[in-house]
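Below is the record:
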Amino acid sequence: MAYVVRSGTTGNNEIVYYARGDGEVYAKGSFLTASDGSYKDNIANISNGLDKIKGIRGVTYTLKNQDNALLTQNDVERNISLDTSSISKSSVSAEIINTIKAERSRKKAGFIAQELEEVFPEAVYTLPNGKKAIAYSEIIPLLVEAIKKQQNEIDELKQAKWVKEERQRILVEAQKEADGIVKEAENRIIAMIDEHEITRKAYDQKTEIIETANEMSREISKGTKEYADSLLANTEDVLNETLNKLGTNMTEALNLMQISLEDTIKTIQNSRKELK
């Protein structure tokens, strides 16, 4: 059996809603749940959403007592035409019947109500027969908070990664700068060594030049002294010769001249000593 609602448009028998006897429900539109704030009290944020989601086990399963082998075309047509007796039955092809059989036989996906109740009891309800049911739509807020928490963690990881990469970049730049400073220092040391070598060579050349100049000065001084001594010696000889020629004929004159000549000779001798 099924409860079927069809479109009210003239000439349009499209199904817009049905609820079958096996519990399957279909709606062409949306299932709406009253959620206006004025209906609610004791509102609180969902905490530990990610931890709760991690504690939920998703499973696949098949429903018990689903005997699809006996499903016939008449069953399907009867289920989809019970909205009114004035609407004729719709023909359902064998292909669709086989597809429906396959879909009813395949595994479904969901949660075990008892397991979910231990983690998130807000989405689990107890039926009059004692069985458990899940309001899957009420798990959506939990998923939203879990995703937000996970995104925050992702953002923190991204931030941490950025900080790590930025720190690495700064270290690399600092290392490059340090290498540059070391290289510059090495170049300066090499330049200083070269400069010191040039200075040393210049100093050696200066010393050599000074020694050569001193040697030349000594040679010049020696030559000058020898030349002066030679001139004085010649003068001394001329004066002695003149003194001898005067003889006795000019005794008085000689005496006067002798004194003068002797003084002159002494002066010359003193000068020669100074030269030596």
About this structure: Strands lie at 2-6, 15-20, 25-27, 59-61, 108-110, 124-126, 132-134.
